[in-house]
Amino acid sequence: MISHYQEDHQTPKNSKSKIFIWTLFDFANTSYSIVVVTFIFAVYFKEVISLAKPVGDLYWSIGISVSMIITAIISPVLGAIADFSAGKKRFLLFFTLLSISATALLFFIGEGMIFWGLILFIAANIGFEAGLVFYDAFLPEITTAKNYGRVSGYGFAMGYLGSLVILAICLPFIKAEMIRETFPLSAGFFLLFSLPLFFWLKDSRKNRKQEESYIKIGFNRVAYTLKHLKNYKNLALFLASFFLYIEGVNTVIFFSGNYARTTLKFSFEELIIFFLIVQTTAILGSVVFGIIGDSIGQKKAISISLFIWIFTVIFAFATSTTDNFFVEKLSSIFNSQPKDIQRNSFYIVGLIAGSVMGATQSTSRSLMSKLTPIEKRTEFFGFYSFFGKSSAIVGPLAFGLVSFITESQSFAILTLIVFFIAGVWLLQYVKDPKLPA
Fewer CB within 10 Å: N-end or C-end of the chain? Predict the structure, then answer.
């Protein structure tokens, strides 16, 4: 592990242009995340495709879980193949085009087309999520280890900036009730701003003698790593912790739009304002926590963000109904109707959650980069993806199931706090390595 740091530490710092080109891909792909996963298509699926029935949450959670199961299974193998052949960019291109094309085709999905809506969403989400394995693995190649935190933060900040831009572009279409048109618009945005990475960011090549198929090589390398995982105990502990707390983050991303629309009765215009607040604070949080992580260590930075998440979930649950003591007390203090207090409180939830949404993910990515052996970078980012994506199976499914059984999204909120508490507890056993001076 020490040699890994020393080699990284001695690597000459790449130009700012390469870092900018890398972050530009974050700027591009977040258009998919905000338009399809978090906001517009998520609400469209519940209200139009699922005919506004409570079972829509369950269908949505099934689509998320299936896409994440598939991504989780293939990610370590794909990462191992990419490490062997140094073909990160080729894999990234394939999955990017898969996500873009499936997103554009969502334009043709209308009322009651649940099956085809889920098929296209699953394909788009696999493309998006699997592509991140190879995108994240570029991080150690574009900067030195001591700057992982801030560069990772810059990437997430650019991503949230991209989501602000695409929301602004989509706003006139939403006001004109041209919801389906936003899907190919998002796909075009993703395509346009991802191109610089494929044209100008170089992927190192290795001339290896290939005696077996890439698939067999991939499975063999993964099997070897699993067999010797005991040699990476600290990394295994971190991945287990990451699995738990990212569960809560993923569920918030997948269901925040549906919650605001279904439970709080937000209009599309109010949802735009809400997500503008979230994305704006996320930009600031990603940069600030990136700097904090490089200063005090990524482990401490992640822990701080998780405690903020726990407070946010408690506050969200306390203001999720209008007939509880907390909302009634705020109503009397501010001389407002309980319903207004409930709706306005959700803007505060968005502001706080946004400040740590990108921060938790970016500091996790930078800590992963510090813990990963150089010769197995992409493979281990495949495992990172495996834990991140497989975690997104249980959380959204638990939320969707509780929402369906109780016919209330308020109780479903409580499922989140379990994951954050368990994750921050296990994280304390992870050693945050120090870089050489």
Answer: C
